[in-house]
Amino acid sequence: MKPAQFEYHAPTDVGEAVRLLSALGENARLLAGGQSLMPMLNLRLARPEAIVDINRIAALAYHRLEDETLVIGALCRQRDIERDQEVLARCAAIADAVPLIGHIGIRNRGTVVGSLAHADPAAEWPVLAVLLDATLEVESAAGRRSIAAKDFFKGLFATDLRAGELVVEARFPLPPEGAGSAFIEVARRHGDFALGAAAAVVELAADGSVAAARLALGGFDSVPVRATPDPAVVATEVHPVDDVHAPAAYRSKLAETLARRALELAEQRARKADR
Amino acid sequence: MTWVGQRVARKEDLPLVTGTGTYVPDFNLPGTLEVAFVRSPFAHARITSIDTAEALAAEGVVAIFTGPDIRDKVHALVLDQEAAPPGLETAEPEIHPATIEILADGEVRHVGQAVVAVVADSRYHAEDAVDLVRIEYKELPAALDPEQARLPGAPIVFDNVPNNVQARYRIRVGDAAAALDAAEHRLAMTIRSQRIMAAPMETRGVLASTVGEETTVWSSTQIPWAVRNSIAGAIGVPQRQIRVQIAHMGGGFGQKVNVYPEEVLITYISRVLKCPVRWVEDRVENMIASGHARDQLHHVEAAFDAEGHITAVRDRFVLDSGVACPYPLSSAYNVASHFRSMYRIPNFAIDAECVLTHKMFNLPYRGAGRPEAAFVMDRVINAVAQELSLDPADVIRRNLIPDEEQPYRMRMPYRDGHEVVYDASGFPAAFDRLLELIGYEEHRRTQAQLRAQGVHRGIGLGTYVEGTGVGPFESGQLQVDSQGHVVIYSGCAPHGQGLDTTMSQVVADAFGITPADVVFRAGDTALLPYGVGTFASRSVVTAGAAIIESSNRLLTRIKAIAGEMLEMAPEDLEVGGGRVSVHGVPSRGVSFKEVYRAASPGPGARLPEGMDAGAAESFYWVPPTVTWGFGVVGAVVDVDPETGVVDVKKLVMLHDCGRVINPLIVEGQIEGGLVQGIGATLYEHVVYDESGQPRATTFLDYLLPTSAEVPEIVQEHLEGTPSDRNPLGVKGVGESGPISPPAAIANAIIDALSPLKIQLNELPLSPATVAAAIERAGG
Ligand SMILES: Cc1cc2nc3c(=O)[nH]c(=O)nc-3n(C[C@H](O)[C@H](O)[C@H](O)COP(=O)(O)OP(=O)(O)OC[C@H]3O[C@@H](n4cnc5c(N)ncnc54)[C@H](O)[C@@H]3O)c2cc1C
Fold first, then answer.
1. Are residues A65 and A167 in the same domain?
2. What value does the mean pLDDT take over residues B673-685?
3. Are B772 and A250 a contacting pair at CB < 8 A?
4. Cβ contacts of B776 on chain A, cutoff 8 Å
5. What does the pLDDT average to over B429-444?
């Protein structure tokens, strides 16, 4: 369980990183927190010829609130978000989700953007990105572009990213004032990737009726899915598969249960003005 | 002060817990070469060609070995360590030895089997070269389902094992068939304990260093003497040229109780290349190429009356051995001898077969047959209660062996050939205390109300008995050294149990010193001519007995020598504080150092007439038979009936392990064992797919319980029945923890959902499994 040989680069600014990526092309892999990439290297499931380690690019280690948007730089660790009470108070779904990701040691190293780029369909951040209509800001030698979360996830561990591209930040518009949100999941053990996850945002009208609702699901398809916010139909909108942890039939039923629970909890929170 | 019974902090914790110990990978012998293996990607295939040219030319590669290269030089292991002893004839055992190949030669028989060994200057280079070895295979049909594999026409794993049935036995007590025919009520169930693995924190590892003709082998093993004997036999060298030692170890749990091909091959390579050679197993290798366990499918029937008294149990089961079942008595016969647990069941029939398949071999893992038996028996008891709409606790109580009938005779032999006779009592009292501790009555009062509030809480119960301290023997030697320490040499092979501390407490009391004054050495074939090892809840019983007996001999000896020195009769002397002195006159005495000098051969010796030189004594202790521990376990769980998610809130365990030498260590053993039981119940599963590919090959998919899965644990030690089958009065405790959680937790889930009357007969109880059971019950 030793990685195959690779070249190692550790640029200190984005420009240098992008130049390296452009020069190295298809054969390079970015290294952020390493919580997904290092195991793949050790198992020789990934065999890049070169690693471009972005951990020394201090300028990417940030997150901030810009009005109603949470902006997360590529080196922001998942734990940084977990410890920011202001962010957690602005979005209960994020507050629910982050502690469910692995364990503290993993969140201390693992980055939010790395999780998005890794695109595990059962991971929490991709579900949040799809729920909250996040956008990813991407740089390459060719310049900068934005990708909407709904266009970013292309399949199992596959994204819209092209060789040479670096995600510099992800922008998460937070639920508006008066809305409620929630994230719930079922995992085999604490910290495991979810068997299934559901996240919802519910906004209320002045008369107390539900004005708008959003629902996102993870673990039920090859990508995180933005689904119709109606538990009765979600099972028809996902394509779960069998794995060693649960058969597809179980997941179909779970999608319905979790969708209902997430929507209910988000609505309850909206009524308590708990975003 | 006496040390036995005290919560003495473990001597071994600093090295083991801080990682400062010396494990096999930590040895730094100059010029050590590292080995990586090419392993079979197929369950069953013919090897049509092997091309190592490119690999051999790769950077850092020193040598490559294939099956044909070592043919006639290194022999396969043929393990017959568990041949049936006298006394077992009534079980009609038929046991074929287990064959374990060193490197595949012509045919591969399971995914993960070693095919080619690459030796290089580093593990990195060895793994790079592994990728360059070209092997062509022709896939063959594989035997994967043990029920099918035993039928004519199935693919055969080894030609010398007809119908793939490597071992079989049968037990008949009373007349189960007649009792079933005559029964008022009966039920039939199919119950499966899934394939799991021990997954010790430290994987296996071997380092062999050859100087001249002698090879020292450091191996992470539970049985150094057997490893030495097997290596010497397999490579055909005199036994004295091989010394096997353990280093610090990070667990074994039975996975390291076998001799492995790598131990033989690494030794051979070191002798060929005349340098240190090491192989350290990685986690993926551990998951596919170190012993698996359990994997039993039971078809059980029970006869009972309207009050739930069980009159007969009849069971037939197959054990999926994979390519070998090296311990058919431990893995399979233990099921029979522990099946009826604490219950009085007059009629019993069981038929067992260990069936070979094209999977990794099956070893006894902590509990060894007992968890499987307990799961069947306590699911049966629970199903009887469900069938009769009785409280499961009442049905258990009605079937418990009453104290008046102890020592209870089970009317069948143990695997050592002696009749199973419990040397314990107090089953009903222990059970009542369990109900009290777990709040059973309160639970029954509040359960419906909680359920109305959406909390589906259940309590489940389980019982077990455990024959502990199995032979054939264990060795011990005690010595006073030149510095006046008392040194223990033991044939056990500790790998985390705290045996250094426990044995030091025993010896400290015997010699009136502190545990810190005792030096403990174990697991080295150069120390003692004979030894066995640490497994099967045996070391404190067997090694402890050997040590206390050699202590007594040594005490007699040093008193005699001191008597000579002091010109006193030995009866007038006492031993304490590192001295032998005259009763009541501590100033008139000699120190252990002085005794050592007086015992040394030569002109300075002061030995009584006729006594040999030496301040040492040894003893080989042979147990009369096993000594029986028992226990009761209760689980409290909450179940989410929509998702099937189970939350274990609490485990309560009361157990009898005879005299407790160190409560801290016993509690640690119980706690760790219970947690492994949770893993086996809810999470762990070695999954093979329909082509024989293992599907859980990392910890991402093989789910061990972590600290976050550990519930509140309550335990009490019952010391009511110290053993009279060994001099310390102890019973083994190492394996007791994992025996009952599967039954207790399954029964608790069933209780949480009692109106649905669900059945949970297949482990692990994943959310999907529980949800499916609920759906089957119409919930
Ligand atoms: C035991 C364990 C349990 C875990 N459990 C969970 C869980 O429950 N839920 C969960 O969501 N995750 C879990 N993870 C994964 C963890 O969250 C990872 O940290 C995360 O998936 C990847 O982030 P990283 O910074 O470690 O990325 P890396 O491992 O460094 O990289 C992952 C991938 O993203 C690419 N990448 C990284 N940064 C960028 C960038 N800026 N631009 C473009 N590509 C980039 C890399 O090239 C690589 O392909 C677990 C991990 C472990 C080890």
1. yes
2. 98
3. yes
4. none
5. 98
Does the pLDDT at position B82 exceed 90? no
Considering the domain architecture, whether residues A191 and A267 belong to the same structural domain is answered as yes
CATH fold for the domain made of B474-621: Aldehyde Oxidoreductase; domain 4 (3.30.365)
> Residue A28 is part of a domain; what is its CATH number?
3.30.43.10
Closest approach of chain A CAs to the CA of B123, in angstroms? 7
Domain holding A184, by residue range, is 180-271
pLDDT single digits (tens) B633-659: 999 999 999 999 999 999 999 999 999
> Distance of alpha carbon B650 from its chain centroid, rounded?
25
Token output for A150:
């709904």
DSSP-derived letter for residue B223 is -
State the pLDDT at residue B719.
75
Clarify whether residues A216 and A249 are in a common domain.
yes
* Boundary of a domain, candidates A108, A141, A173: A173
What is the CATH architecture assignment of B13-25+204-280?
A: 2-Layer Sandwich (3.30)
Contact (CB<8Å) A188/B708: no
Q: What is the pLDDT of residue B702?
A: 98
3-state SS of chain A: helix, strand, coil percent to 5?
A: 35, 30, 35
> How close, in Å, is residue A45 to chain B by CA atoms?
13
Asked if the model's pLDDT at residue B550 lies above 90, the reply is: yes
Q: Enumerate the β-bridge partners of residue B461.
A: B634
Return the closest-CA partner of residue B557 out of B479, B475, B476.
Answer: B479
pLDDT digits (tens, 9 = 90+) for B689-712: 999 999 999 999 999 999 999 999
Buried b (16+ CB within 10 A) or exposed e, B628-667: bbbbbbbbbbbbbbbbbbbebebbbbbbbbbbbbbeebbb
The DSSP-derived string for B69-103 is HHTTTSPPEEE-TTPPPTT-GGG--EEPPEEE-SS
Contact between A52 and A28 under an 8 Å Cβ cutoff? The reply is: yes
State whether residue A39 sits within 8 Å of chain B by CB. yes
Q: How far, in Å, CA of B44 to CA of B158, rounded?
A: 12
Can you give the CATH number for the domain in which A72 is found?
A: 3.30.465.10
Confidence category of residue A274, pLDDT binned at 50, 70, 90: low
Give the mean model confidence (pLDDT) for residues B119-123. Answer: 98
> How remote is the CA of residue B545 from the centroid of ligand 1, in Å?
54
Of B124, B700, B706, the CB nearest to A190: B706
Domain ranges of chain B: 13-25+204-280, 422-467+626-779, 474-621
User: What is the share, in percent, of chain B residues with pLDDT greater than 90?
Assistant: 98
Taking CA–CA distances from B698, the nearest residue in chain A reads A43
| CB atoms B703 and A190 under 8 Å | no
| Residue A263 belongs to a domain | yes
For residue A209, being part of any structural domain is answered with yes
Give the percent of chain A with pLDDT over 70: 99
Write phi, then psi, for B303 (nearest 5 degrees).
Answer: -115, 140
CA angle at B116 for the pair B22 and B224, rounded to the nearest 5°: 35
Domains B13-25+204-280 and B474-621 share a fold: yes
Domain count, chain A: 3
pLDDT in tens, B125-145: 999 999 999 999 999 999 999
**Statement to judge: residues A116 and A36 lie in one domain:** no
pLDDT band at B566 (very low <50, low <70, confident <90, very high): very high
Residue where one domain finishes, among candidates A173, A190, A221: A173
In a domain, A2, yes or no: no
Q: Which atom of ligand 1 sits closest to the CA of residue A167?
A: 42
Task: Tell me, yes or no, whether A1 lies in a domain.
Answer: no
- According to the CATH classification, is domain B422-467+626-779 in 2.160.10.10? no
Asked whether residue A166 falls in the same domain as residue A185, the answer is no
pLDDT digits (tens, 9 = 90+) for B582-622: 999 989 999 999 999 999 999 989 999 999 999 999 999 99
The fraction of chain B above a pLDDT of 70, given in percent, is: 100
Nearest by CB to residue A188, choosing from B642, B766, B771, is: B766
Angle, alpha carbons B197-B198-B203 (nearest 5°): 110
